[in-house]
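On clarity, I found the account of how folds are encoded harder to follow than it need be. Since the whole study asks how a given chain folds, the encoding of that fold should be made plain. For illustration, here is how one protein appears when written out as sequence plus structure tokens:
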Amino acid sequence: MAKRILIPILSLFRTGSAEDKKFKESIAHVIGDRPSNLGVYQLAFRHTSASKETAIKGFRESNERLEYLGDAVLGMVVAEFLFTKYPYKDEGFLTEIRSRIVNRESLNQISRKLGLDRLIEYDGNRRGMSPRSSMYGDALEAFVGAIYLDKGFRFTRTFIISKLITHYDLDSIIQNNANFKSLIIEWAQREGKEIRFEIIEERGTRHHREFISQILVNDEPFATGNGFTKKKAEQSASEQACALLELR
């Protein structure tokens, strides 16, 4: 009888499943500290395709709200970092460099470098879930939001500066700070060409859509590019066009 009573009592002292322990170790390895609220990190890696029903009718829980929060925190910390690092640069320069740092393609790459892609919970059978999906960058932003809620702003700021921004070659970003769309438009004006930008295809889901842009010169297809926003797709197509014309 004593043995039967002892078993449920001991179960109260279990610290979680082996899977939870492994997840906790992974988070601790990335942020450099033990997570206090494991649940908020688990939510950060729950993609919308794997969202779960809640007690609130019509509300499914995923990492989208944390992504919203993390995007704001990340943008603010990067803005402050650039403001301090480049005291004699104007607002246009700072805005463009910040945009290049926090764009979806860059965040996707950093997310994979940190190994966060292995932690994402998603439905791999859903259409549109390609390896180029923005879910890696989305998860990174949600992760930043989770760190902020768990550890506070000061810790999160240090994490962003020491663990994320260090992955960027800022000198290279500045040297390649060209507005390719402006360059190709200026070229068309000089050469007397008619130029037009068109979105010819959209891929993925409503939440994770990739756009394909095409540049037409005198109504003839000239170059194409892709991006997770229409603006990025046009910029990508413009970069390809500039490369073909050797414009820099």
